[in-house]
Design goal:
single chain; alpha/beta; Rossmann fold; 2 domains; 3-stranded parallel sheet; 8 strands
Amino acid sequence: MPSGIPDFRSPGTGLWENVNPMEVAHIDVFRRSPDKFWRFYGDRFCSLQDKVPNGAHAALSELESAGMLRGVITQNVDRLHRRAGSRNVIEVHGSIARSVCMECGGYVALDDVLEQLESGVGTPECRACVYPLKPDVVLFGEMLPEQAMADAYALAAEADLMVCVGSSLEVFPVASLPEVTLDAGGTLAIVTQGSTPYDDRADVKLEGDVVAELQSVVAALG
């Protein structure tokens, strides 16, 4: 957690350790009780507001600027890859950068949502039709965005090398992307602490701190 953002599933520290995601982060909860949904998600939005990209984000941005990285596929919704300067970012779980009105389909920027939350409203609303806003992220019970997944699979199929950073590679369907690269004749490098299902098929496995490992890669290539 180099940027100070807890993940969801780590034993002892994950967000789902003390709360049932089906009771706070499911699309049915949002539809049935948006105030209950936003009591959880509003706190998460506010906790992410002051987070900044870390050295791993910066290293990937540098590699892209140098023409060595074609794009980033991420399950993170914190928008830190874009804030670090990465341009081709495929956010397969969406992003907190905006929320969507389920009534009119309009989008509302994060700053507007935070302003409403800080004013004390229970549920941020679309200013046009006064309807509850939903974060533009994939909730439990929702499908991943079709275009983002199509872009992710296309990028994986074209990759000479896929670098998997900070992931256990256990959450599907994104965990199937390394298989796409391998099947297409590409190779795999893994930069993460702990084991993954692809360790024995990767050409490289780095198990140190992801920031230090990626910074070392950038320095070596420079």
